[in-house]
Specification:
Blueprint (H helix, E strand, L loop, with lengths): L3 E8 L7 E10 L2 E9 L9 H7 L3 H4 L5 H12 L3 E4 L2 H14 L8 E4 H8 L8 H7 L9 H19 L4 H8 L4 E2 L16
């Protein structure tokens, strides 16, 4: 069955641990079962003008919101044990990883797959495979760079691709299109000194 969670983060700055919004769309048996979205107060309430120009979220809008650790108990159940899809998954997985590490939170166990890769294989003749381009092609009406709207558009991609190739699960879809499904890796890039094995 087409069971998965689509996720989208928006960030306040170029730093990956600066999430200021997150949304998830849980799909069960090919239908949206539930959604979750929230604003997040990023570290130090720091924002770049460039990021604000992209998503429209300002420091004033999140000043009284919870930080990442504060929303994690609500977000985690959507990820744990599921297949998680994101459009440009390296970005969203990087935001999740950096936020977990920065807050010393035990990471969840799940697998993830990238809908950019899925769309490239399913519809190779599109001019590009940005979310708005693929969304327009699939006739998905959404407001780009709103986390929940983007997560809904992301969820539409594997559903349409599965219908195209006759797949009945994300695993089947990934195998048919030769797209990777990877376990989430939250290993620090640079281990702390006391984590280094002694000679």
């Amino acid at each position: 069955m087409m069971d998965f969670t689509a996720i989208d983060f928006e960030t306040a700055t170029e730093r990956p641990n600066s999430a200021c919004s997150v949304a998830v769309v849980e799909v069960r048996n090919g239908e949206i079962a539930r959604t979750y979205s929230t604003l997040i107060r990023p570290p130090g309430l720091r924002f770049s003008t460039f990021n604000i120009s992209i998503h429209g979220i300002t420091p004033e809008m999140v000043a009284h919101e919870r930080d990442f650790a504060g929303v994690w108990t609500e977000l985690r159940p959507f990820l744990e044990g599921n297949i998680v899809l994101a459009h440009n998954a390296p970005f969203d997985m990087g935001v999740l990883k950096s936020s977990l590490l920065a807050n010393h939170i035990e990471p969840p166990k799940f697998f993830h797959c990238c809908t950019v890769q899925i769309s490239r294989k399913a519809w190779p003749n599109l001019p590009n495979h940005k979310l708005n381009t693929v969304g327009d092609f699939l006739h998905v009406d959404f407001r780009h760079h709103d986390a929940l709207e983007d997560a809904r558009a992301c969820a539409a991609i594997p559903l349409a691709a599965a219908e195209l190739v006759g797949a009945d699960s994300v695993e089947d879809l990934a195998q048919t299109l030769r797209v990777s499904v990877k376990p989430f890796d939250c290993t620090p890039k640079y281990p702390r000194r006391f984590d280094t094995p002694q000679a």
